[in-house]
Amino acid sequence: MTQAIELTQLDNPQEWDLSDLYKGFDDPRLTQDLDSLQTEAAEFRESFRGKVKDLSAEQLATCFKTLETISEKSGYLYAFPSLIFSADTRNTEAKQFLDKVMEALTSVENQLLFFDLELQKLEAAKFEELQKASVLSDYQHYLNRIAKYRPHTLSEEVEQTRNQDSLTGRQAFIQLRSIHLGEQEYEPVTTPDGRTVNTESELSALLYHPDPEIRTAGYQSVRKVMQQHNSLYSYIMNTVAQDHKVENQMRDYESTLQKQLLVDEVSEPVFRAIMSGTGDRFDLFQRYYTLKGQALGQKIRTADLYAPWTTEAAPPVTYKSGVETLLAALDQFDPNYARRAEEFFLKNWVDAKVRPGKRGGAFCSYTYGKHSYLLMSYTDDYNSLFTLAHEMGHGLHFAWIDDRQTYFNSNPPMVLAEIASTFNELLLLDYLLKQAKEDKSLTKSLITRQLEDQLNLLFRQSTISRLELAIHDRAAQGSFDHTFVNEEWMKLYQTLCGDAVEVLPEHQYDWARIGHIYFKPYYCYQYTASNIVSLACYQKYLEVGKDFIPGYLELLAAGGSLDQVEALRRYVGVDIEDPATIRGALTYVEKLLDQLQASL
Fold first, then answer.
1. Which residues of the chain have pLDDT under 50?
2. Which of 156, 190, 269, 299 holds its CA 20 to 30 A away from the CA of 553?
3. Chain centroid to CA 413
4. Distance CA 388, CA 453 (A)
5. What is the DSSP letter of 460?
6. Which residues have a Cβ under 8 Å from the Cβ of 43 and sit 6 or more positions away?
7. Are 387 and 362 in contact (CB under 8 A)?
């Protein structure tokens, strides 16, 4: 480290401090900002509705800046209640205020819809003139994106209705699942050391326990809840998928996939290449778990996928030591990178405490003009440490974006959005391997953990998107129920696992735990795509050393200002459209497998 740090407040996983957004629900600025936001939106509408076609490039640039200011304030108003709700889904006040804010922001969005719609209706010559205007250079990619949505845009009245309907339609069902899941109680499991766990995050952490009975108990406890509510969660999934179908018909999209790929800025050939490239190499997944089964002397089951390779329990990784280890790993990459990560802990931008009612999983929530907030449930193990590294990668990515980009360029396409998170995990892995070079047991644990991470990103995440292809194809034909989703999920997982892994009956309900399939269709293949790109970036870093860093940081800082394929080529020399890039990621995994097999 370039400087010693004192993190005495991190003896236990911390809770975040949201006071730089608002002091609390009684903060008068909340109501004031909500009122002023609606006033500003109304004034903008009054000033420019029906007049966009007559605006000069300079006037348009001023309008963009005004819209960005409104959007920035909207972000603060949404972030505050949603973050509190995520940390405690049983918080009634947060839920009620979040509903109020979402209703108000929908109204604001409806008042401003006209602007992009009128831009899209401009004559081609006028629009091209604006795209080339130097005063609008910061908004070139934004204008290009607007143009791509032209064939799928509806009238202002219909767009407004769609927005309003989302409050009681698709988004309401997605929110219902989050609330319902947060209210669930899980059968407690007592570990051999006498500790009793009963939260989803702690029970999921038991999948890494050396005792197969403990793993099974944790696995079954979580999935028993999914089984109990299988019909409800499949009904919600069907409703969400049907709503996408209706929207596709209204907007003239061929499919939900086409619609989402346009949002993601990924071409369908790239998507299909990723799906077929990973689908052709399930043998890597099966080879690994065959080796693992031989080493453990048992057939691997889905409850054992993350079982340690040794019966010795791994030493705990306390929150404080985990934070210090992560910062040390980032410092070896770049001291300034580490300093910015340190800020998250010193200023309590992280909520890592385990508690009932907390949203499952982990996320990084970016608030433009401020910073990011990280949420996870830290359970004193290496899995938690790598999750922390992953979310911190997102936080650092947005820190570089915030330095350089306007609001409209602050949202990177999804493949780019996952690069820094995976890159951070690779930095942490290399650091830990160097620290553990005399500890063969820990070294093997880290290598196998990296392999399991890669197998998850390349094969499990793409399998989730295969399930979505089946769900949305079926939705296009008509409604479906829990039986359809359960059977499809089992069929896909059995194909992935082959004879190497026994797919337990409870696994058929596991799909309902995957929040992304509700929140955003086809999100998960992007983990696969981004992992492929991240591995390519990391290999270049290992080849050229510190000279790689400036281009990498430029890539992060680019945010959403460039086409992501162009940005990857320009700043780090990686071409996602080249099949060799996909093969390179699979070769990396194969070499790790060879290395592991040679050590057995």
1. 1-5
2. 269
3. 12
4. 14
5. I
6. none
7. yes
According to the model, what pLDDT value does residue 7 have? 58
List all residues 6 or more positions away from 106 whose beta carbon is below 8 Å from its beta carbon: 163, 164, 166, 167
User: Helix %, strand %, coil % for the chain, to 5?
Assistant: 70, 5, 25
User: DSSP assignment, residue 325?
Assistant: H
Contacts of 519 (CB under 8 A, 6+ apart): 174
* Close Cβ partners of 201 (under 8 Å, ≥ 6 residues apart): 354, 358, 360, 377, 379
- Quote the percentage of the chain above a pLDDT of 70: 98
DSSP E strand boundaries for 394-530: 501-502
Q: Report the distance separating Cα 212 and Cα 288, nearest Å.
A: 19
Q: What is the pLDDT of residues 177-192, one digit of tens each?
A: 989 998 999 999 999 9
Cα(594)–Cα(291) distance, integer angstroms: 11
User: What are the tens digits of pLDDT across the range 101-120?
Assistant: 999 999 999 999 999 999 99
Q: Which amino acid is at 78?
A: Y
- 217 in Cβ contact with 189 (< 8 Å): yes
- Strands 196-197, 189-190: parallel, antiparallel or unpaired by DSSP? antiparallel
> Rounded to the nearest 5°, which phi and psi values hold at 300?
-70, 135
Residues 6+ positions from 149 with CB-CB distance below 8 Å: 120, 262
Tokens encoding 345 = 């802990």
- DSSP code at position 315: P
The answer to whether the pTM exceeds 0.90 is: no
Question: Which uninterrupted H or E stretch holds 300?
Answer: strand 300-301
Asked if 445 contacts 382 with a C-beta cutoff of 8 angstroms, the reply is: yes
- DSSP structure string for 157-209: HHHHHHHHHHHHTHHHHHHHHHHHHHT-----EE-TTS-EE-SHHHHHHGGG-
Residue 315 is predicted with a pLDDT of: 83
- Cα–Cα distance for residue pair 30/76, rounded to 1 Å: 9
DSSP state of 371: -
Residues shown for the chain: 600
The pLDDT of residue 440 is 83
What CA–CA distance (Å, rounded) separates 495 from 470?
A: 15
- Say if residues 414 and 264 touch (Cβ distance below 8 Å): yes
**pLDDT of amino acid 415:** 86
Angle at alpha carbon of residue 273, lines to 244 and 497, rounded to 5°: 85
